[in-house]
Each structure stands twice: as structure tokens, then as C-alpha cells.
Amino acid sequence: MMKNGVLVISLDFELHWGVFDKVELENNINYFENTRKVIPKMLDIFEKSKTRVTWATVGMLFLKNVNEWKLEIPLKKPSYINTKLSAYSWMDDNEHKLLSDNSHFAPDLISQVYATEGQELSSHTFSHYYCLEEGQNLEEFENDLKAFRKQLLNKSEESYSLVFPRNQYNKRYLEICNKYNIKIVRINPKSWFWNELTKETLAKKVFRTLDCYVPILRTIYSINDVVKDEKSKIVLLPASRFLKPVSKFEVLNKLRLRRVKNEMTKAAKENKIYHLWWHPHNYGNYPEKSIKDLKSIINHYIFLSKKYKMESLNMIDIYDKFFNNEK
Length: 327
Hints:
CATH class: Alpha Beta
Radius of gyration: 19 Å
Order of helices and strands: EHEHHHEHEHEHEEEHEHEH
Number of domains: 1
Largest sheet: 6 strands, parallel
Number of helices: 10
CATH superfamily: Glycoside hydrolase/deacetylase
Low-confidence stretches: none
Number of strands: 10
Mean pLDDT: 91
Distance between the termini: 19 Å
């Protein structure tokens, strides 16, 4: 039984590695430059408000440049049938564009995350690995996690949580996650329009979008709704809400923020968990407005923490507080 509500925030820190198959780099240099500039501001907001946040980070971001990247490539790469999904295939075709690029390597930003109190560095795999795509296999996934962990060990660090890229949660892969010290992973909300095992349809996209503005899905949950996988013993922590990027339509921005704050308030009043997530690069188009909205959300958390004793926990905090029997 939880004694107070909990706000969990997890961020998928990817830069261009998360969208290289969808977003042309040449037309989005400013977008990712804005992202780099906005991350220290996000960290400052989290530190001052004592908001604890999980940063699920693509391992390739640890590297300094293309030459270093080439030295860290795992022996077995993902053999997707759709080769356009492979970061390695993309690099083969685009290496010449990365000589002075800040959209794929960010060891300086990772160091800032490390240095900010309450921030957890989590795994988003080494190469933004897709665990449900045809062609790839368990051995390739293990090689990817091994490459990610090597980057951590180079900094004498460890990571105990993981977010599957594109939310492609694959239960078969949990035992490998456990082998590499993962204790807790983020999974999708329990809803048909978030089901990663069913075909992506227009209806699923429409309902996911509508739910960001008007109440459809109940997004808060009890700690009793969080389960452990029986074989791997990994905790499966559901997401609640994807924080959509700022829209050019102010009415949608207001609806979006109201939806999030109402859900936070409900979680605080009912002593439930509310798990909010987004990508830092979602702030690339409207960085100033995005930071303003983040301050509004965090100020609302501060209000709820004072009135209802709502608590901020990152993903490994959840594991340690409620599931770590050895602690």
C-alpha cells in the first residue's frame, strides 16, 4: 500500500539515433542543436525542484566521433530484414555527414546528466535496437547490450533500468536484460491502442493522440499493478502518458497540459503512480515554449508534493523502494 502519490519521469535520450529512419538530418540540424541547448536547462529545472528523472540513453551517444564509433561496434549487428532500420546501415551511407556533427555524439551531455543529483542514467540499448523487428535475434540483442554496458564501465558506472526503443517490449529478451544487471524496464500502458504486438493501425494512432487531450485511458495505477516477470524477475513498470511536443495550435497546448496536470493531481490524491515520458528532442522545434511548459508541470508537482506529499522517484528508485528485497 502506497502512502503517497508518485511522479515518475523517464526520458528517451536519443538525438538523431532515435529517428534516423524517419527524419532527414540535413533539414534538422537546428532541431538537434536546439535539443542540445535545452538539455542543460531541463537538468537545471530537475535539480532545483529535486525532481528525480530516468534518462534512457542510446549508447552511441557516449562516443566522441565517428572514429571512436567504429572502434565500439559490436561483433554482431541487428540483421533486420528492413535494413533502413539499422543505425549501422545508415552510417554506411551517411558517415561523410558526421565529421562536424552534434546530432549523434554527446558525451558532454551525458556527463552533465551524471553530475546532476537525482538523475538516473538508464539503457536505451547501444544502437536504438528494435526488439520486435523481423530478422534480428537474441544473440544480436545481447551483443548490443554488451556494447552499451562497455560504455558504462568505461566511466566506472552501472545502469539498472532499460527502456525498449520505440516501446518494442519483447518478453523473450528479459532474461538477457537480467544477465546485464537490468532490474526494471518501462512497458506500454495496458490498452489496445498501445499494444506493441498488434499491427499498427490508423485507429491506434488516432486514439493515442486523442488520449493526450481528452480522458480516454485511465493512466494512474497502484504499486500492486506493477508486476515482476516470473523468469527474469525484472520489474515491469507501465508508462502512463507520452508528453506530446508543443503544437503550433495553442488550444491543443492548453488541453495537453491540462490533461497531464489533472492526471498528476488524481495520482497525488489517490496515492497512485503517474509515469510521464518523452524525448528531449521533442523540444527541438519550440525550445522556449517547451521549457516554459516543463516548468509549469514541475511547479504543479511541487504544489502536489506540498499539499498531498507526492513524491518524485526515478525508475530505479521504484525498484529499490518497493521490490528490492536485498536492500
